[in-house]
Design brief:
about 270 residues, mainly beta, 2,3-Dihydroxybiphenyl 1,2-Dioxygenase, domain 1, 2 domains, eight-stranded mixed sheet, 16 strands, globular, Anthracycline_SecMetBiosynth
């Protein structure tokens, strides 16, 4: 759970284009945008402004004027899992779509233009874990890191890492590195020698109602306070706060069931 930064400037601001294969954005599609915005606004201090509407109503979350995440309206005729979706940067979404299919994945949405912001697709790996791909134009992606309410890390929760790691190598050029000191199945994925994401093989511990999925970690100033606030706002505690080698961490779900972790990164 090492924080991935891309040319971070003062206060963790990012003005550069993310390198291909680097996580660059997280987005959530929900049924109740207003209540969801209220939940995350209170929890993380987010403010919202309208974003591209190619997939329906959509808002970008801002901290101190910097874009950090997106929340969109789920079409009423769709009954998909409510989940945070990470997006990986690409210089050519069309080519990435071909790579996804060639490596055994599935393209579910796109490629399509999101106005002047950029171009996107939503896909799933061979195990069914959903992710997005973003080709930046006007919108470069997450523009702030390392402060309360910003994405800190993403992690693929899957049955075993070996069965799926070659997919991400083939599509994004991720370089896997097993965590040999761990007594469990864990890999970090690297771009240019820098860790950008993790993979955690949990075997039969995988939730039956979710299957393999990407888990987003958000940085918070105090994990215990964040958990208490999340539950007060209608969320649910899934994994109690505990200390890890990377910092104190807990896992919760928002009122619509979207699962995410909060972490106070050790620095």
């Amino acid at each position: 759970m090492t924080e991935a930064r891309e040319s971070a400037g003062p206060n963790g601001t990012t003005n550069a284009r993310h390198a291909p294969g680097v996580p660059c954005w997280v987005s959530l599609m929900v049924h109740g945008m207003a209540t969801t915005q209220e939940f995350y606004g209170e929890l993380f201090g987010w403010e919202f402004q309208p974003g591209p509407r190619q997939l329906g109503p959509y808002a970008r979350a801002l901290l101190d004027g910097h874009e950090v995440a997106g929340i969109g309206q789920m079409p009423p005729d769709r009954h998909l899992p409510i989940a945070w979706t990470p997006y990986f940067a690409s210089d050519d979404v069309n080519h990435t779509a071909e790579s996804v299919r060639h490596c055994g994945g599935t393209v579910g949405v796109g490629p399509l233009d999101a106005g002047e912001a950029g171009r996107l697709l939503i896909a799933s790996d061979p195990t069914g874990a959903v992710f997005g791909v973003w080709q930046a134009a006007a919108h470069l992606g997450t523009a702030l890191h390392g402060v309360h309410g910003t994405p800190a890390w993403i992690e693929l929760v899957t049955r075993d890492t070996e069965s799926v790691v070659k997919f991400y190598q083939g599509v994004f050029g991720h370089e896997p590195e097993p965590v040999v000191s761990a007594d469990f199945d864990y890999m970090t994925l690297h771009i240019d020698g820098r860790p950008v994401a993790g993979m955690h093989g949990v075997g039969h511990g995988l939730p039956r109602d979710r299957g393999p999925h990407w888990l987003t970690y958000f940085e918070v100033a105090d994990v215990d306070e964040a958990v208490a606030q999340a539950t007060d706002l209608g969320g649910h505690l899934l994994k109690a706060a505990h200390d890890s080698p990377y910092g104190r961490v807990a896992t919760v779900a928002d009122p619509e069931g979207a699962v995410f972790s909060v972490i106070r990164t050790e620095r």
